[in-house]
Fold this protein.
Amino acid sequence: MSSENTSPIRGKEWHLDPETEYRFELDIGTSLALKLLRGQAEIFGAELVEGQTYIFGQECKAAIFTWRGCTIEVFGNPSTDYISEETPMTAYANVHIALEQMRVRALRIIHGSPNNSEDESSLPPSSRLSEPPRVLVLGPENSGKTTVCKILTNYTVRAGQDWAPILVNVDPGEGAWAVPGTISATAIHTPLSTWSPVNPLGSASTSAPMALSSNALVPLAYWYGHRQTKRNPLLMDRLVRNLGQNVADRDGDAEEKASGVIVDTPSSFASSPSSGMKDDQRHALIKACVDAFNINVILVVGHEKLTMEMQRTYGNRVTVLKIPKSGGVVELDHSYRDRVSTYQLHTYMYGIKLDPPPGITDGTLGGEPMTDLTLAPSSLAVGFDDLSIFRIGEETMAPSSALPIGATRTVSEMQPAKVDPASISSRLVNSVLALLAPPNPDESERYDEEVLDLPVVGYLVVTAVDVPNRRMTILSPNPGSFTGKTAIVGTLEWQEQ
Ligand SMILES: Nc1ncnc2c1ncn2[C@@H]1O[C@H](COP(=O)(O)OP(=O)(O)OP(=O)(O)O)[C@@H](O)[C@H]1O
């Protein structure tokens, strides 16, 4: 009888000295598994559990950092991997400590205890040190803004103080907890995982976060509809303010209130030439964030000129700090970003399916078991009149030539225009639509632009339009009827591969 070889497969061991990090990048279609054998290690601020196997995929690029040294075992073939001894983690940890002190002071004040540990009159007036930290993270493309937000958030929830900072994403290119085109916010109670660029800010409650509730994140989201900020900066401004209002109105216990807010921004806020935005537009959007979230700390990742600009504009009321960029941040090109956007929409519809490296049979994806993360979306036929679809701020149906002589078309950037699916210019096939929360039931409270201010409850994709029968086919992971609902279409498209 032949005996089967049951000896466990061995990976490659890496020994990391204190304050170094193991960096890796994955190619298309490859995955990597990693295990902490000894010591302490963290991935963007989230601690690894010794002996647990972590799986990474979908072109993930990340780093395992250690403060005290560790040994890790790596399975699979990353396209690049190396150990770096130069990291900005000490600077990031110092920022965290300063923010933590603000939280502790803010909590004391919320509880009504006198703040006698320091004489505030000796502190710089700009620092508003007894308020919860409300941090805006700015920086150019590929500077590591999202990673900094993640590290600061993870250190906060790891502090063991019951903090629950609100993490806000106003980068519509990122996808954050759902799909690109969205800006969103959610309170974070447990460390954010890293396993794929599909969930850059941790996993929401399955990939249909707004519709399903579980113990994971349930973000509040507004639909901007485009990946680039320059498409409609005025709309962006309004949505940022809506999000800020919701965050400000949120109830919470003392710890939650003292935890503060961390806002991740798009690179278009930092530099105009590459983003296609004018300087005054990006300044207006930074101001929208500063006002909406009542920002008291601005962190600028590795950009001298922007730091000076922020210092000049906000230095009298906000603490402006430049923090170093990590040498590990990967330059992500447009085709990579397009692929991640496609992965995000696919994951939203179908959930997660990732093949681990050969020989690995168990493991977790960002802390969740690999099984049961798939979804089965339904394809439904919906009548043209069942679902009201709007497009924001774009000319719709009638061509300019159809207007009376001398009349010019003035469609404001904020104007919701009803889309007629039967029209040749509706451009609905393969479009991603955001399904909105119901409008105000009180008719007297309704207003023309109300659809701009309604949060998202889910997303769907129009896969076919049948004009003769006045029906369209819709793919959505959320079962249920669309009758009487309202949706907005933008410029985001997705097609089954
Ligand atoms: N120390 C590191 N080692 C390896 N990869 C890293 C490191 N820090 C960041 N990355 C990776 O680099 C990529 C870019 O980082 P990140 O998304 O934080 O930058 P960003 O400035 O927010 O990007 P954007 O240009 O989209 O605004 C991500 O894939 C991230 O996981």
The radius of gyration is 24 Å. The chain has two domains: 89-323, 378-493. The CA atoms of residues 90 and 180 lie 32 Å apart. The first helix runs from residue 89 to 110.
